Amino acid sequence: MKITKVKHDSKGEIIEYQLDNGSIVSKEEVVNLAYNGEIEGVMVSRSKSNEYYVRSTPDGDKSNNLDNLPEIQ
What we know:
Blueprint: E1 3-8, E2 14-19, E3 24-26, H1 27-35, E4 42-46, E5 52-56
Antiparallel strand pairs: 1-2, 2-3, 4-5
């Protein structure tokens, strides 16, 4: 699976992810899927506040970074 769209909150944080199968999942769900190797092109990281999140696997192409994906409407 791949992430195709994202939804940001008012602070600019990504709070939901749309997958290529059309389903929309929460931040926690996408972390679990990515941790289990079920999502392509992302890796699980941990923030300074000890919170897990997903980020794009670095490939030198900024156009496919999660923040640059289309917004879920």
